[in-house]
Amino acid sequence: MKPRTAVWITGVGAMTPLGDDYEEIADNLLAGRSGVRSVSGFDVSQHPSQIAAQIGKIRCVPGWDPAEFYSLFRLEQLTLWCCYEALRDAGWWERREELRVGLVLGLGAEWLTLWDSDAHRGGTSVFGSQADAEPLASSTQRKLRLNGPALSVAAACASGNYALAQARRWLELGWVDVCLAGACDAGVTALGLAGFGNLRALSRRNDQPEAASRPFDRGRDGFVLGEGGAIFVLEAAETARRRSAHVYAEVAGCGASSDAHNMVIPSPDPEPATAAMRQALADAGVAPAEIDYINAHATSTPVGDIAETRVLEAVLGPAVWKVPVSSTKSMTGHCLTAAAAVEALACLIAMQRGALPPTINLEDADPDCALCHVANEARPRPVRVAVSNSFGFGGSNTCLVLKAVSG
Amino acid sequence: MTPIRDPSAPCAGTAICADVVASAGIRVTMDQFPDLRQRPGPGLGAALPASVLRHADEQTVAGLAAVLHAIHDFQMDVTDFRDWGIVAGPCFLGRATLAVALQRLAAEGAWGISPHFIPHRSQHAVAGTISQVLKIVGPNLGAGGGPGSVVQALLAGAALLQDNRLPGVWIVATEWEPEAIPDANGGIPPEAVCHAVALAVVAARPSWTGIRLRVLARGTRMAPGQSVQTVSQLQGLLTPVVGDYALPHKVVWTLEGGGWMEFGRGEGGTNGTRPERVHRAEARVRFDVQQSGAGTENKR
Fold first, then answer.
1. Of 3.40.47.10, 3.60.20.40, 3.40.50.300, 3.30.450.20, which CATH number belongs to B20-211+273-298?
2. pLDDT digits over A326-338, tens only?
3. Chain B residues with CB inside 8 Å of A256's CB?
4. Whole-number Å distance between alpha carbons of B170 and B52
5. What is the count of structural domains for chain A?
6. How far apart are CA B62 and CA B25, in angstroms?
7. Please, are residues B143 and A107 in contact by the beta-carbon 8 Å criterion?
8. Is the peptide bond before B178 cis (omega within 30 degrees of 0)?
9. Worst-scoring range by mean pLDDT, A10-19, A243-252, A330-339, B232-241?
10. How large a percentage of chain B has pLDDT more than 70?
């Protein structure tokens, strides 16, 4: 088989509940700060869960009329900001029109989000013709003057990993010179909070927002809704090397599988998710003992965290006691469609800063989740290989392997 | 500053070639869905548990039905696809349900929202449900979401297949045509028809003479107006490709930045194969199924 073209991440644009630029997010992540608060922006008094990890005002893309920018829906603002910032960070922004810049966006429920946002503003677009409506991937491509294919992919909370895998493939195929990939979600809305709340998926620890997201802890009672986005610039190693670009990491391995079990409940059989992890590790040529850090999917639900522990045990074997694991959802909440991308960012931060972000609120580790936890405080450690698991509704299991790039 | 690349120069993009080994298209009106939800298609063997489709969107039901008919018509078996992947591109999935949900949220508050709303109306739901029914343990994902979702599904499916780990990929696209604008009660206009198309694609083989999907990244730009935007347009485009040997390729979509996606025929010669057009009518549901005579090559 033809060897894969190495694909590197050379730019990051992100906005999360922990900050709206790379350095701020890194500082807060490694300081173990929670982004969870009581929900603001709409009335939650009748909601079972009244807490969330929300983002603040989204930065306006330079050169845009602020009035025009802030008239867009938040999901679009977020996507535009993250794409702009990623291209700027990579050093491609000014030269983007000279290239074929592809775009693969993880968007779990684009139109539901937009119609919901419109209704929140008093609009009725869900009841009007949408024949001329422009999908977000296309409008982002047009508004940022990107000259390459654009695609949106959806696998619920695993969407971001699928976006990175597609982008890597596009680069390998030579369809694009550079590709933006990642995911955004502005899902902290009354509808989202009610829908997940009525699924009994959300924490009801409303009186202690910062302590509510507690993956692997015996006292966990559900996840905390989060929002945000992370978009990365991917390019072939050869291109990045030629221009002496700053490199965050190599997208070294991707794996994906399906449970074929239930739309919501994770499979009690760890085999499908195990297969996704093994695929990604094999793709990257990495043995379990070589992994320096695993960012677990672990959402803080009673069932899900145990299911993932069984997967990690199966994949890591004896190394399960040595490979550090944390869930940054303890701080960011569960950013849904954006979760995989935000957690890929957490892995990049671990690699760049040489420190592992912790699982906060891990005060009484569940014995059914016996892992090598990075509990409550960041741990200094050089990270050459980082692994990020992301699973989603619809039975999706994905795994991403990132490798540090030497020199 | 030196340009990175001369925009007028040909790009050294690689082509993806995928053989369409089974396909089916269906059209379903709103009044046909209760029956289809009970019996989405042939070949399932043991009855499908009612819970699987009870809360599913109509586009999910139609997408599953198209897949089951493709399997049946090409004499495959529903158990053949364990290691396959699936990409589904529904258009405006869950719109009518959202229209009702927004009103219930306003009238009844948080408790008015069904817990099934998010899992079954998000963009992954069609692929996720079909993967569950066919016991697919390969990747499943949604693509697109709005106008043009059909080409987004084709593009994502072709790229997914290119990964050599998969024996094949189902590409499914669904859409209401004309647009199903919900009324105040979430009702769908009676003239709206849910179209669904399902294609089973495998990596191209030299002997293949049936339908072939190709994606080519090249410097050449295609003239505008040659792109498919809807599921019914794709169905309409596939028919002459299947039926006319003289027609080499039909462009489906131009690739921004240079290149295009097209349907044509495999170059494996024409001896021994003959395209046929099949019309089916079953249980008040109209099916238009296009197939190539070579489709059963994929039976395992």
1. 3.40.47.10
2. 999 999 999 999 9
3. 85, 138-139, 141
4. 19
5. 2
6. 9
7. no
8. yes
9. B232-241
10. 76
A393 with B122: Cβ contact below 8 A: yes
Size of interface A-B (CB pairs under 8 A): 246
Q: Which residues between 187 and 246 in chain B have a beta carbon less than 8 angstroms from any beta carbon of chain A?
A: 215, 217
Of B16, B144, B160, Cβ closest to residue A135: B144
Name chain B contacts of A108, Cβ cutoff 8 Å.
122-124
Contact criterion met (CB < 8 Å) for A100 and B118:
no
Do A111 and B129 count as a contact with CB atoms less than 8 A apart?
Answer: no
A-interface mutation test, from B59, B98, B122, most A Cβ less than 10 A away: B122
CB A373 within 8 A of CB A359: yes
- Chain B residues within an 8 Å CB radius of A267: none
CB A274 within 8 A of CB A264: no
Domain boundaries, position A84: 7-242
The rounded distance, in Å, linking the Cα atoms of A43 and A52 is 13
List of chain A residues whose C-beta atoms are within 8 Å of the C-beta of residue B217: 173-175
Both structure tokens of A344: 């890929």
pTM metric for this prediction: 0.93
Confidence check on the interface: ipTM exceeds 0.90, yes or no: yes
The reported pLDDT for the residue numbered B297 is: 26
Identify whether A64 is part of a domain.
Answer: yes
Looking at residue B163, what is its pLDDT?
A: 74
Residues A24 and A77 in one domain: yes
